[in-house]
Design brief:
about 475 residues, mainly alpha, three-stranded antiparallel beta sheet, 26 helices, 3 strands
């Protein structure tokens, strides 16, 4: 029965005022006797539905046990007071809040853990104390993490659905979600990490006072996107960091953010979204202070063949923050601390190196952009992006080309040139038909008669427009000379 429907049968305020000081003094000599009398008084106030008096008595019991260092008895009485028959919601809330406040006062770690578990147990399923339970759960997760139990800490914090806690402030909710995200990344549970990341409201993080949380969130997401090979999202995360006012006030930070945003934008698979991001980065005012980044972006926005290797790209080979060769079991932390960035390793995985055919061809059947090869060696991925850019340029300017000539333009073998072209055709970035016996590649689709006639008609209309415009200019010049 709800306590709002229970009418107070008797007011015990005066009795409690007289009894509490006496029993508090008695507790100094006989704690058990004082507790027995307090529990008896609590029963009378509870059955009389006197909520304020019951709260005072229950709090007195918890305080006496804390003052006397009886932590085991405190855990038992917290559970007992909350589970008593016809116990009122206000009393349970007061007891749980008071016990939760004593967590940091416990004498040792074991006592602290027992108190947390006792309070979490009695508060389970009670909405009116969900905030206290959430905070205690976070404290428990921090303790487990400190002991090196990352998986247990992540699973413990996972139980808290902060998005449904109405009494929790928005900033505290964001802190909880970021902690859950961080622990799942540490646990390498990337599926749950992505689910948690989708709960974070990006618009809230862009608000005033959330700059630190915004930076933390984006750096966590960079770890997630990097291990997943989602370079476009990685670039967006770095660009979001760059657009934070705190970062733009620190030259070292904005240089790092803008540089990584540019590099990952280039590494992202080409589509209209990635191309728009590259153009946006290229037009960024501060990009002029990063000439190497600007040159890199211009290579991919200019409709010209990019030679491999070239000076503009060679400068980036030693940029270990992105292009360091990582191991197979690397978790994608892009911290630039890898020591495996050797020239021999890169050469073995170079797309234009004939010795690397077996390594590259072994990735068949997977999504090439997120395959093990390109996760370990982003320099090979950059080479792939250069080849794809060059193929789009060739498709734009050539209607037909010989396969050996295409391989020469791409600085690849004929087999690899054909393979990369096939990938672009499959992704519908270009149209091409390959005649292997004749070694011809056509970049123009066969058109029917109607399409051909429409094209001729359009060309004739354009020709007549140019003729008319030319005649108009000639007559204009004649009239000007006659006037003179």
């Amino acid at each position: 029965m709800s306590e709002q429907r229970v009418k107070k049968l008797k007011d015990f305020t005066q009795v409690v005022d007289e009894t509490l000081p006496r029993l508090t003094a008695l507790a100094q000599r006989d704690l058990d006797g004082a507790l027995e009398q307090l529990l008896s008084l609590e029963k009378r106030t509870r059955l009389a539905a006197d909520a304020p008096s019951t709260v005072r008595v229950a709090q007195a019991i918890i305080s006496l046990l804390r003052d006397n260092g009886k932590w085991e008895m405190l855990n038992e009485h917290v559970s007992m007071l909350c589970k008593r028959r016809a116990q009122m919601q206000k009393v349970m809330q007061a007891v749980i809040q008071q016990a939760a406040g004593y967590v940091e006062e416990t004498p040792d770690k074991e006592t602290k853990l027992k108190l947390i578990e006792a309070v979490r147990t009695v508060s389970d399923g009670k909405i009116f104390v969900e905030l206290e339970r959430a905070r205690l759960t976070k404290t428990l997760a921090d303790m487990l993490e400190a002991d090196g139990k990352i998986a247990e800490a992540a699973d413990t914090l996972q139980d808290v659905t902060v998005e449904t806690i109405g009494s929790m402030r928005i900033k505290e909710k964001a802190v909880f979600l970021l902690e859950q995200l961080r622990l799942f990344l540490a646990k390498k549970d990337f599926v749950r990490a992505e689910i948690i990341s989708n709960k974070v409201n990006r618009d809230v993080l862009n608000g005033k006072g959330f700059a630190e949380l915004k930076l933390k969130f984006n750096r966590l997401m960079i770890r997630f996107y990097t291990q997943a090979g989602r370079h476009l999202d990685t670039s967006k995360a770095w660009f979001s960091i760059f657009n934070t006012p705190v970062v733009q006030q620190d030259e070292a930070q904005w240089r790092e953010a803008l540089t990584n945003a540019a590099v990952y934008a280039v590494l992202a698979p080409w589509d209209y979204e990635s191309n728009e991001l590259i153009l946006r980065l290229q037009n960024e005012k501060l990009m002029k202070k990063l000439p190497d980044c600007l040159a890199l972006l211009k290579l991919f926005t200019t409709q010209e063949i990019i030679p491999w290797p070239c000076d503009a790209l060679a400068k980036w080979e030693k940029y270990d923050a992105v292009f360091a060769v990582t191991s197979d079991d690397d978790d994608g932390d892009d911290d630039g601390n890898s020591n495996n960035n050797s020239d021999d390793t890169k050469k073995a995985m170079d797309l234009s190196n004939d010795g690397g055919d077996d390594d590259y061809d072994g990735e068949e059947g997977e999504d090439d952009d997120t395959s093990a090869l390109f996760k370990r060696n982003k320099w090979a991925l950059l080479h792939k992006r250069v080849v794809q850019h060059n193929l789009r340029v060739v498709a734009k300017y050539y209607a037909r080309i010989e396969t050996p000539r295409l391989a020469q333009l791409l600085s690849l073998s004929e087999a690899r040139a054909e393979r990369f072209l096939s990938e672009l055709v499959s992704s519908k970035q270009v149209f091409a038909k390959i005649d292997r016996p004749a070694k011809h590649i056509s970049f123009r689709a066969k058109r029917n008669a109607d399409e051909t006639l429409n094209e001729w008609s359009a060309d004739l209309v354009e020709l007549l427009r140019l003729v008319d415009s030319t005649c108009h200019q000639i007559n204009k010049e004649k009239m000007i000379h006659k006037i003179k």
